[in-house]
Amino acid sequence: MKLSFATYRIHCTHPFGISRSTHSYYDIVYVYLEGEGITGRGEAAPSGRYDEFTDDILSVLKSGISLPESMTDPVAFSDIVFPQCKGIKALEVAFSMAILDWWCQMQAMPLYQYLGADPSIAPKTSYTISIGDPDLIPEKVQEGAPFHILKVKLGIGLSEDKAMMNAIREHTDKLIRVDANEGWDLSTGIEMCKWLADQNVEFVEQPFKSTNLTDTAELRSKSPLPLIADENSLYSGDIPGIEGVFDGINIKLMKCGSIFEAQRMIQMARQRDMQIMLGCMIESSVGITAAAHLSPLVDYADLDGNLLINNDPYSGVLVKDGYLTLSEETGLGVSLNSDSENLI
Questions:
Q1: pLDDT tens by residue, 259-301
Q2: Where do the Mandelate racemase/muconate lactonizing enzyme C-terminal domain residues begin and end (predicted)?
């Protein structure tokens, strides 16, 4: 089994702003596993919020990863590779994608079949309107026209958040999901949740800092809208501690570290009757498509990171009439549509 990797800079169509930062581009790393004429692809899109950075990933890869000569079991193969990733979850999940892409191609099955997911019941995905220039709101709403649900980034202040929602509502009455990205305090959260309840909003994601579960529990007791954990829901081990504080969890592959771990999170949330959302970072179609194979197993999807960039080098999952649509191709079902150097 041969390992190679490549870096690639993805450019946002518009500057992507959330309550704590704004980015115009992200540097990601692709991981490739090649053997027996098959290439497995994976993507690492690290987040500084979790102290993960592209340079750290490259340092680990350049120092060398020891691979088994062959793959007879993807779980056993993963158990050898993951400990060499120095705890970097974005790198672990890149390998997880590449391993399962390779394995499922070898077994002549789509990844969703391996996962026991039915692609015919894949959910709708939301389309994100991030924090930014208010003059761009009409354009962003128009870009979201093919989607039934919008996700709106808030968390910059009570008056600013209401102004942004009002500006969006001048152009659409679509269902909205709100993400405060830890940007509110308790009084703002209470007022905003009550106000948003009359704005055709489905739920609120991560209202407060992840360290502030006390205020989150109080808000949940007063909010007419469900609360979904994001920064409080990294891995399966986080779920018992937030049961009864949040109504649901947001699973992101780049946070949890593997497709297998995402499966564990789904199982644990189901056991606790918690709602499940599948989210993403700003990523290309490799990472988004990998997550989409899990989407029939969850309640909500926010898998639009590849739709918010203008230089996606791969093709994969599609969105048709607002729904995630997976192909019958084996493995991830992604293909290269770029002539960029070093990409496979």
A1: 999 999 999 999 999 999 999 999 999 999 999 999 999 999 9
A2: 134-226
Asked if the 2-108 domain carries CATH number 3.30.390.10, the reply is yes
Tokens of 53: 């950075």
> Is-contact 219 251, C-beta < 8 A?
no
Q: How far apart are CA 242 and CA 256, in angstroms?
A: 16
Q: Which pLDDT tens digit goes with each residue over 110-163? A: 999 999 999 999 999 999 999 999 999 999 999 999 999 999 999 999 999 999
Strands 275-279 and 2-18: unpaired
Rounded Cα–Cα distance for residues 113 and 329 (Å) = 11
Q: 210: helix, coil or strand?
A: coil
For the chain, which residues make up each domain, given as ranges?
Answer: 2-108, 114-336
CA distances from 285 to 68, 127, 173 (A): 27, 15, 29
Q: Give me 317's structure tokens.
A: 């999952």
Spatial CA neighbour of 250 closest among 320, 301, 208: 301
- Residue whose structure tokens are 């990601």: 28
pTM of the model as a whole: 0.97
Task: Count other Cβ atoms within 10 Å, centred on residue 196.
Answer: 23
